[in-house]
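DM from R.C. (forwarded with permission)

"hey, sorry to bug you on a friday — could you get me a structure for this? deadline for the figure draft is monday and I only need the backbone to look sensible"
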Amino acid sequence: MRPKRGPKDVVTEFQDPLKNYDPPIYEDALQRSLAEDTVDVIQIRPFETVPPTMTVKEAMQMMVDLDIACLMIVENDRLIGVFSERNVLDNVAPDYEAVKGKPIRAVMTKDPASVHITDNVGKAVNLMAVSGFRHVPILDVDEKVTGIVGPRRVTAYLQKYFLQKD
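My reply, with the result:
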């Protein structure tokens, strides 16, 4: 049996909520950039990817040699983890001798949060600030690693806007 329709169930003509949409008004260029520019306005390259089979010792040496703070772990062209200075301090340093020969897979951060190249700058910066991530991988539309943002790169991006105000 079909329920009876009351006056609240009357179907009216569709009202487009964006019909009278006013574009946002930004206080400054930085606010506009955070909301509208895609994340690639921040320097997202170079970056390094390594396989999960690389040893912890090899990964740490690579980070020292390249003067970088984070490696992205890729398997079958997919991001599966990150290995950063934090992983070294939290997972390696307490028992270096026991883990130095193990694959990086054993101490990496699995399934890291990431943003897409089409996402706005604010999403990446927010992810870093709210979630406490120092490094955020950038993926393309096919879910392949295309870059990374970290504290140095975000600082360089922000400096452009703060130097404009002087």
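R.C.: lifesaver. The first helix runs from residue 29 to 36.
me: no worries. The chain has a mean pLDDT of 91.
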